[in-house]
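DNA-binding transcriptional LysR family regulator
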Amino acid sequence: MSIDLRLMRYAVAVADEGGFRRAADRLHVAQPALSRQVGDLERALGVTLFTRRPTGLTEAGRVFVASARRILDEADRLAALTRAAGRGEFGTVRLGFVTSAAFEAVPRLVGAVRERHPDLIVDQIEAWSPELVDGLLAKRLDLVVSRSVPPRPEFARAPLHREELVVVVGSAHPLAGRESVTPEDLKGSRLLLSRRHLPGYRAVLLSALGHVPEVEDTRLPGWRRFDELAGGENYQLVARTLGDHLPADAVMVPFADRRPAPPLELVWRRDASPATALVVAVGQASPGASSSRS
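Structure:
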């Protein structure tokens, strides 16, 4: 037979209070109604749970109340977890990000989420921006951190982190020992630029130079793209965060006058889950992030 949780709570209250009248006061029900409900439960079970005058637990009653406590605790926990999931505080958010977000922006965001919402899991995936856009559209990703997601009506976005562009050259490049460079200094070297960058990002990098450079396509993924600097003839433009975390044979050289990198943005679908909305809220409240949205 199935037993109503309400009847379990009645029996536990009678056991806790040591009598029907005090239990009725605690439960805010009439004492005769409580006595009748417990009696109906005993008849349905075919056992006596309580002795009367004085009220006490029988051996069957002790077994029932102990089990009822465990079931009620689990039911309360289930209700709390369900409400937390409805608020987005419990679940998993799939976060995609570009390489330059891996060192500061994403760890800061994930750490803040962990501190404020410890039951919320953030799965992290590093990829090129076109793959992140595809992941958002196909709903394989819930949220991305990128510098070049194009505007789409189904996307919302918020600035997350702003920084400057820097030049990266191999250790054998003539500019490797310079404290700073100008765009004019880069003439005669080839800019390594992947075709997998979205057009908006490529346009920002090229406009930062103020001239049309000789461009060489880099097809290597992730950190391997810096391998192509070893010959000493090429250079790359990257965000300062990435420039601070280079392999040993690559050298960062800042511009003499600051040139802004495309800002890192949080981008998500407008039909985002409550959990995604919580992560976005944490990101917007983080230091250096703007609260503006589009």
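The radius of gyration is 31 Å.
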